[in-house]
């Protein structure tokens, strides 16, 4: 029995009690939940339904709980119900009902854990969005791992998600990039405000190979060639490195397109219609202080140039015009000050900034070697890049390490730890269970032990304490996925895989033998445990997939 099925049983019992007592059934909720009690000795699951309904119907909570317990105790699959405290219901399932979960999981396969919790929500999820003036640095890599995992979680809970990468390919940073390429091509030092690193020389060389005539042009014309070709090469490299990292975006959006299509003027006119623009000192301002910003923001300077914030306004409006009801933007720690102005901007457009715009902030990441932070990239010169991280610990470990922690916490990634083939390496610990469960299934097949069809499965045989513990851990997966999606916290999946599933499976494996020994005859208990082994493999694989990490069959 899954937690959702048990919740339905609890609610059905409540309907019966209300009918027997003549209570107003309009007070009953459409659904309820059951949870695992903190202390396993209190039962398999707990419900607070009696406490929730007591005031609504004027019945003391323990009296209502007693009636619910009496009705629920007669339900199929429920072994016992105890009343605790002011009216908590502690529920124990019989072994057959608990064990049936193994079959549910195996038969559901990749669908187990998915739900329609967020069905109907259309979400635009923007992440990474590094400037196209250099390789993706380690802060951006964190968002690549977390953002991609979040997109998978949102889709697994029914949301309609569009992932997006915003290329800031207009503005002064692109001019500095072009000047840096030109200087490298001429063998000169980078401009004082330019970009350094070996990658600049590499791109300059590639541009000259593609466009050899650039050597004959004057500086202004040559700089334009380096700007166009250099940005294109950097785009290609960023897309390629993210693809190798397992991250693909539905849309790569260019800031330059906003300018070329006149969308900044469109946004300006929309804000003017809303009554939030004013002119001062020859510039056009947005009155964001009306909505809590610390100061008003310039959209167009007195010399006619657009500000970066004007492009932010146009880009937000573009997303909303494309039908996205919720715009989620992931930004680095240095962008914390953007929250106030962006929320105010959404309000200026007439949106609800709490409903339509969500901004997530990610903290810093350090890569440690021999206990000390690495500061310099071999290629970028000033920052640690995606390639540096992957070269050090691999794609799976990188993605897992970055998604394993709450994004609002700084993290240190110790190269020695994350490359170690031991249980203290979190990704190895979880992947080892994936490989072990696959190995058990292979070995079972070699000795003629196969799970058989669902009709031959004897779930009531899974009555060992460690079997029950593992079943309860596996039952939590759908709720973990839904909570992680709703709270935008992929790390909940990683911690669940480690602390609940992997830990419980190791204890099950040590105490409950799956394979027959020697010439021992294959029994229904062996088959039942093989179902549980395979169910664990399914949950581990599904959970790792949500994090963009592989579930190896061998290690």
Give structural notes.
It is built from 21 helices and 14 strands. With 555 residues, it is an alpha/beta fold. The mean pLDDT is 91. The radius of gyration is 29 Å and the shape is flat. Helix content is 50%, strand content 12%. The strands form four sheets. The chain has a five-stranded parallel sheet with strand order 6-5-4-10-11, with helices on both faces.
Quick recap:
This protein has 555 residues and is of the alpha/beta class.
Coarse morphology: flat
Query: Strand order within the widest sheet?
Result: 6-5-4-10-11
Helix fraction by DSSP (H/I, runs of at least 4): 40-55%
Termini, distance in Å? 33 Å
Structural class: alpha/beta
Major sheet characteristics: 5 strands, parallel
**Cα-atom radius of gyration:** 29 Å
> Strand percentage, roughly?
5-15%
- Summarize model confidence as the mean pLDDT: 91
Model regions low in confidence, pLDDT < 50 over at least 5 residues: none
Number of helical stretches of at least 4 residues: 21
Number of strands: 14
